[in-house]
Structures are given as C-alpha cells and as structure tokens.
Design brief:
Layout (H helix, E strand, L loop, with lengths): L7 H10 L4 E5 H14 L6 E6 L6 H9 L3 E4 L2 H9 L7 E4 L5 H9 L3 E4 L4 H7 L6 E5 L6 E3 L2 E4 L10 H13 L4 E5 L11 H20 L2 E6 L17 H16 L5 E4 L3 H4 L3 E12 L3 E5 L8 H5 L5 E3 L9 E6 L8 E8 L7 E5 L19 E5 L5 E5 L4 H5 L16
Parallel strand pairs: 1-18, 2-3, 2-11, 3-4, 4-5, 5-6, 6-9, 9-10, 10-11, 13-15
Antiparallel strand pairs: 1-12, 7-8, 12-13, 12-17, 14-17, 15-16, 18-19
Length: 420
C-alpha cells in the first residue's frame, strides 16, 4: 500500500505537539512527486507544471512547489492574490476562468498571467478588462463522451467547461482580429483517472485540434495544456498511475505530430501532486451501538468534505492496530447535524476504543481546501512534516473569533469579543 505509508511513530510524535484534528503534510513527499513529474516531461524543451492552487492553497506548500520549478493555476482573485504575495508572476501563473467577476481578468492581466478563457463571451470581457494579449489560451470541449478504447472515461458534453469545436474556431478568429498571435489549447475531460492512457489520449486530441486550428486561423500554437485529471489510488487495491510511463507515451504522441521540437507543454495537476502526501489526524472520541456500530471522531466533514459530498473512499488506519484483525464493522462519523457526515460506512476496522488515534489518508488535495463552517464547527490546523523530520504549523486552527469576525457590524459584536 504505497500511499498509506506514514509510519505510526511519526503520527504519535505529531500528536504529542499538536491537538487533533489537524492535516499533516510531508515536505519530502511533495518534493519527490514534483521532481518525478518534471522528470517525466523533461524531454519537452518548454514544460511547466502549474499546480492547481485550489487543491491545497497554503503558502508554505506553494513555496515548496515554486522551489521545485512549478507555476500555479489560479481560478479566483484570492488565489491570484496568494500567488502574487509568494512572488509568482508572468508566465508562471495560469488564470483559468469560468464564470468569473470581470475584474479578476484585469488582475490576471496586471500580473502578466496566461489567461485561459472558458467561453467565447470571455473574449469581449477580456478586451474590456485588461486587454487582449498576444498569447491567449482557450479551453476546449469536444462534447459527447470521452473514451479510451471501449471505456467511457468522462462526459464532456455534460460539463460546464469549454468552447465547442465551432466556437473554438470562431473564438480564435476573433482573437486574431484583436491582436492575438499565438494560442494555447486546454481541456479537462476526466477526473481522478488511474488509467495511464488518459494523458496520451488527451494529448493526441489537443495536439491534432491545435494543428487544425493553426492551419485555419494562421495563429501559432504557443502551448498544449493537458490540465489535471491524473488520479491517485484512494483504495488499497488500486494502483497508482505511472507518471514516467505517461510522460513517455505523451512524448511519442508529441513527436509523431510535431517532431522533436514543437510548442510548449503544460500540466495543471493538484490531486496527484499533493493528495497522497497529506493525512487527517484525529482521535476517536465516542462510540455508539444501535442499529450499527459507530465511532465518533474529533474531526468531521468540516475538515474533510469529500466523503460527505461525493461518497468518496478515504482509507482509515488506527495507530498501533494495523496488525490486529479488521473484524469490526463501523460507520466512522463526525459531529455535524447531518447524516452524511461519515468518513466511512460499514468499514472493516480493528476494534477502536475512545482515545485511539485514527489516520484518514490521502487528504493532501481537496481536503482542508474544501472546508467550511457548518454547525459553527471550526477548521483545523495544517502541519508540515519537514524534510529534516521536524513539525511546523503552517496554518493555525480557527478560533471562535475567526468564525464571528464578519459580525463586527452587529450590535452583539462586543459580547462576542470582537473589536468594533
């Protein structure tokens, strides 16, 4: 189980220093994945990974990835602000738009970011808010089903993203009239895919489409953006995609179309980059035996929303008990007044007692980032396990003052301990 390898002694050391629940991230693991990805695409003269900030928007993590040569993919003004504060600028930022406020285009253009347009109507918005640059990216949606072999991997025609093929051509012609000289093409056709064929298949679609559009419009191809979509094995029986093999297969597609030298290549991975290098560390605080056997944790869906939102599987281990029989069937729950606040349903686990340390795995992407404050529950701290084995808090836990901060306009503010 390669993605469930955080040693128990590391968890116990962290718990001695920080109250649960908290998210724990491995600096060494994140750096190793960034280096492996860069190695996989080192054959391309101009390759860059744009880490999807939405996956793990923590300054300490973004600094690590910046040091490893990564840019950032931003999809909101606050993500742009965070990128700017950390020194990202120009071509190291990809601004992926969809139904954004117009002023966010202005901010992206001020930073010199690549702007990735999601819709043909965005052309006029960009013209009025920041201006049309010489290089523009457009998100492509081919419609229908996305298939690898006989398997349907996604349904682009049902997705809210991207230009239709007809709009893509029309949009590029409009952009050329407005001064654009080069274009990028981007698509996201499948999520959390474990099939090694996903990126090579997508690459072929985008590269051939780009060549067709270049011929019809006279624009140069600036880059091919494969976006995200490479997944991680959340379940023990699953196998992680081989990113080195994926990179080699993309190379073969690339050289068959462009030869040894062609346009730049971009990726926007989030989940693959940091997902397996994060864990939600919790304590069992309650047990209940009714029609089922329940274990209550000091964490809840506020700390990890994916199981409640998607029914997603996250592996759970109990510190010092992995060698014990997994002969108890539990629903593992949080404390929200929602019946879907469950990290696991009818999961075989070793016998759990109040006070046991439970580890929820693969929370390094779309974990803390999707947190919220339902029931007035507060989001947890984030802790970094540094390369030298130390622990460092990289985000403190929320306090009631944080929760009530936007009520400083209310007469009750003073009683809530807020400054008026």
């Amino acid at each position: 189980m390669p993605n469930f390898s955080l040693p128990d002694h590391v968890v116990k050391q962290a718990v001695q220093s920080f109250p649960t629940p908290f998210h724990l991230y491995s600096e060494a693991g994140i750096r190793a994945r960034a280096r492996k990805l860069n190695q996989a695409f080192s054959w391309c003269d101009d390759y860059e990974e744009y880490f999807a900030v939405k996956a793990l928007p923590n300054p300490s993590i973004l600094r690590i990835l910046k040091e490893e040569g990564c840019g950032v993919d931003c999809s909101s003004e606050t993500e742009l602000m965070l990128a700017e504060a950390l020194g990202f600028e120009g071509r190291d930022i990809m601004f992926s738009a969809n139904a954004m406020p117009d002023d966010e285009f202005t901010h992206a253009r001020r930073l010199g970011a690549y702007v990735n347009l999601d819709d043909i109507t965005h052309i006029d918005i960009l013209k009025k808010h920041g201006g049309i640059p010489e290089t523009v990216c457009c998100r492509y949606n081919p419609g229908g089903d996305f298939r690898i072999g006989t398997f349907v991997m996604g349904n682009p025609g049902e997705a809210k993203y991207g230009f239709t093929p007809e709009q893509f051509l029309e949009g590029l012609l409009q952009l050329r009239q407005l001064g654009t000289k080069r274009f990028g093409i981007h698509a996201f056709l499948s999520s959390n895919t474990l099939d090694n064929a996903y990126y090579p298949t997508l690459a072929g679609i985008l590269m051939r489409t780009a060549c067709d559009m270049a011929e019809k419009t006279g624009l140069d191809i600036a880059f091919i953006n494969l976006s995200g979509g490479i997944g991680i094995p959340y379940q023990p029986t699953q196998t992680e995609p081989d990113v080195l093999q994926i990179g080699e297969q993309v190379r073969k597609v690339y050289t068959s179309i462009f030869g040894d030298h062609g346009p730049a290549l971009k990726t926007e991975l989030g989940r693959w980059m940091t997902g397996p290098e994060g864990w939600l560390i919790t304590h069992a605080t309650h047990h209940k035996d009714t029609y089922r056997h329940y274990i209550g944790l000091d964490a809840c869906a506020v700390n990890l929303m994916r199981p409640a939102m998607y029914g997603a599987y996250h592996h759970i281990t109990v510190v010092d008990k992995e060698d014990q029989p997994h002969d108890h069937i539990y629903d593992v729950t949080g404390s929200l007044c929602e019946n879907n606040d469950k990290f696991a349903v009818e999961r075989p686990l070793p016998e759990i007692h109040d006070g046991d340390i439970c580890v929820i795995h693969d929370t390094g992407a779309h974990g803390y980032a999707m947190g919220y404050n339902y029931n007035g529950r507060l989001r947890s701290a984030e802790i970094l396990l540094t390369e030298n084995g130390d622990f460092r808090m990289i985000r403190r836990a929320e306090t009631p003052q944080d929760y009530f901060a936007t009520l400083d306009i209310d007469p009750c503010a003073e009683k809530l301990g807020l400054k008026v």
